[in-house]
Each structure stands twice: as structure tokens, then as C-alpha cells.
Amino acid sequence: xxxxxxxxxLVAALAVGLSFNLASAVAGLPGPAMLAWKGAGVALLAAYxxxxxxxxxxxxLAGVMACGALGDVLIDALGAVAGGGAFLIAHVVAVIxxxxxxxxxxxxxxxxxxxxxxxxxxAIAVLCVPPQAFNGGVALYVLGVSAMxxxxxxxxxxxxxxxxGAVMFLASDLLIVTHLPPAQExxxxxxxxxxxxxxxxxxxxxGVSAGFEGDVTPAR
Length: 220
Description:
This protein is mainly alpha-helical.
């Protein structure tokens, strides 16, 4: 039996993920179908990572994306706590992955960036989330996603893919926690949240997968 090529899986992931906003606006599909469509994009990124996995790090990347896909589904099916929990697990696994692949000793400015990302994200959350909505769960989640971005910046993987993708993911989540409830979000904000998130996940997947084959440029 001929196996499906990783390139085909990647193309399918991009097609499904990038079409989700359009589908949710015009397709008129029933809720379960849209939920499946939403989760399929990052699930296919997980499949792509698994198809290219050759060691523990490759499987950690696949796990990060699989937990992300689960979060995409749970956040709509069961609510923010269940979905956020799945994403928080993904961030912990990602931190482990990046910590296993450190960049050569960081300069002072680079270390400052790694520290500034979580501090800035937490400050934005504290200042912009309505007081009645800010709680320990929100703080823990913002800490998790921002720590993931900081560790991505400190890893050996290409920053123009992995660190950029992680910061896009962080920006998407900050839009979520600081904005109106989903039912009241302007359409443009919903589109921005999804595209920042999905493209961020795609860049992380591509950058980390390439790094396993030696395609790493620490200067970037």
C-alpha cells in the first residue's frame, strides 16, 4: 500500500485551515461538521509532524499539534476551561521540546526578549481583561502560552518560522482573552484570531520539522 506523502498532508492541512473562516461564514454546515472542519486543520499538521518524526522531538511536535487540535474542538464543544486545558498541555509539551533544543548561549538582548515576552503578555492581560473576567485560570493560561513563545525564541530552530509562529499564536490568544465574548466579536477580529493562530501553528510545524533535518539557521 502506498503511504500518503507528508507534502500532501501539509497541503491538505493548509487548505482546510485557511478555508475555515470562509466555510464558517458561507457554508451553512451543521455544528458538528463545522467543529470537525475547525479541528481538522491542526490535526492534519499533527499528522504531517508524525509522518516526519524520526525521534522523540518529532513525536513531541506531533503531540503539541494533536493537543492543539483537541483544544480547537473542546473550546467550542465543552467550553473555555476544557479547551484551554488542552492548549495548556500543548504549551507545556512545546516548552519541553524547545528546552531540549537550546540555541547556543544567548546574548543579553536575546535573554531580555525571552523574559519580556511573558511579562508583556501578562501586563496586557492584567490591563485589558475586564476585572470581573480576570482570574487564576486566565493568568495561568497567559503565562503558559507566553512561556511557550519565550522558549521558542530561545530554541535552536529558525526564528523566522518557529519564534514568529509562537508569537503569532500568543497574539491570537491575547486577542481572545482581552476582547469581547465570541458571540459579540466583530467578524474581522474573529478572522484575525483564527489566521494568527493557524498560520502560527503551521510556521511552528514547518520550522521545527525542518530543524530535525539540520535545516536550522541560528542567526535568524
